[in-house]
Known about the structure:
The chain has 101 residues and is α+β, with helices and mostly antiparallel strands. Helices cover 36% and strands 24% of the residues. The chain has a single domain, classed as Trna Endonuclease, Chain: A, domain 1. The longest helix has 11 residues, at 2-12. The N and C termini lie far apart (28 Å).
Amino acid sequence: MQKAIKNILLEHFKDQLEEDDIRSTSMGASGVDLLLSPAAQKLIPYAIECKNQERLNIWGAIDQAEKNSTEKLKPIVIFKKNHSKTYVTLELTEFLTLLKK
């Protein structure tokens, strides 16, 4: 799923980012699932945790994203299960900030 999200983000920002601005980490590696270059961090200020699971422990996923977040990169979880749409979880205050933009 990480590679799919990477490709979606690169397509969305195709005029602003290069292929190597977003890198997918290996499964089981510690830290964020998508490594963002400084240019990508300006456009995508999130510590991204990707999950493709039939039964997701959302609190565990959020905790994992929060542990990998920084002052500049806010935690989000992008998740789906087989044959479903893809969703994003983020803190309410961050969502409200997005609505103001």
